[in-house]
Amino acid sequence: MEKPDKRTSILIAAQNLFSEMGYEGTSTRQIAKESGANMSMINYYFGSKEGVFLEVINERIKGFKAQLDSIQEDRILPLEKLVKVIEGYTQRIMSDIPLHKMMLREISLAQRPEMCLKLKDAMSGNMQVIENIIENGIAEGAFKPIDIRMLIATIMGTITSVATMPSKITEGSILDINIPKDKEILTDRLIAHLKDLVTTYLTPQK
Amino acid sequence: MEKPDKRTSILIAAQNLFSEMGYEGTSTRQIAKESGANMSMINYYFGSKEGVFLEVINERIKGFKAQLDSIQEDRILPLEKLVKVIEGYTQRIMSDIPLHKMMLREISLAQRPEMCLKLKDAMSGNMQVIENIIENGIAEGAFKPIDIRMLIATIMGTITSVATMPSKITEGSILDINIPKDKEILTDRLIAHLKDLVTTYLTPQK
DNA sequence: TCAATTCAATCGATCGATTGATTAATTTTG
DNA sequence: CAAAATTAATCAATCGATCGATTGAATTGA
């Protein structure tokens, strides 16, 4: 029963609150109360409210690019590479939907320049990897020539769309993404759809 | 040179500010200053800050469903119907990207129940129309049997993705979505991509 | 004249941030 | 080793600013 240090508990509380209430909608007092820390501890450790936010984002981004890069260096077929990227990307986003929502909100606001830049850079890197994979696939003749950037928007947009409104996808069925098992089912369903979609779309017709 | 009444100018200013700064990030004082109205005019006409927000959303939603319903009743091929829906949906979203972003942010926050419900209802209706079209297409044998809800997520997600980060799609090219002409080019490119994608994906293999 | 608008002034509440004091932990020194 | 000095961590209290909302008086137009 080891309790986390104050710094960590502030980060955890902040992440939960930011995810649920948004950045502006979360007060430092809430973060303090939720984390059991004194208000001034927030400024002591992170300088400001925005500092907390940036740190939450940093934790999330860390390791994202590494996974993609390792896939890119695999010596496998372009389609297999793309499928791997889709699987990794989907798993990561679906494993923490609220945080992903938060990042999307902030990137669409462009109100806090520093964190917006950080997010865009991270996303840019990810997109570049996917773009290279598809480009190579087309050059090798493994893929049909298509609008690469648009296909990337389709892949990312589909995942985001499912993550943002899972109830709109699953309503009518018994899925409840708050149940881990059901979220896993939804994730698998999403991956299966994207695999089928990009395979059908990218496979050249003889 | 007819100047709009205070009520209207408040709505316009509020829409612009909410779109740029978010709901929490916009103060009633900003709305008052931007619209040239006195602060208390906001409460006089709309009761509260949230009242203004709801009215902005209402204006946007109005007419959305009507367009979809008219398409659904057209006596044309399923694929033509779907293409029409894609065109209409894309045009509408791309014609006012900031407002669309704002609605996405609010729907992902679920913090203001009334307006969240309103948005979800509107979106639900739209999705139902698309779902019916695809269902009919599959039943007629015009479409391959696929995961309908997931394909809808793909269509909506792609459009949203392009609307949310156009710079990530167009960077490297000369497109600037702040120039009307360029935004139109991007819109056409998006529609072309989606048409190609759904056609390839839904057309049964003989 | 009278109801509909408009306004300056102000309400209590809450915001993010800072202060100075206090305690806990660590390092330095004799 | 133990006392002293230093640093890190925590706290209650409070700062000025701003929040959304309200008041009551002034102004307008029919």
From TrEMBL, chains A, B:
Annotated ranges, domain HTH tetR-type: 4-64
The ranges the UniProt entry gives for DNA binding are: 27-46
GO MF assignments: DNA binding
For this protein, the record's PROSITE patterns field holds: HTH_TETR_2
Q: What does the UniProt keyword field contain?
A: DNA-binding
| A Pfam family annotated for this UniProt entry | TetR_C_24
Is the keyword NADP assigned to this protein?
no
The protein depicted here goes by the name AcrR family transcriptional regulator
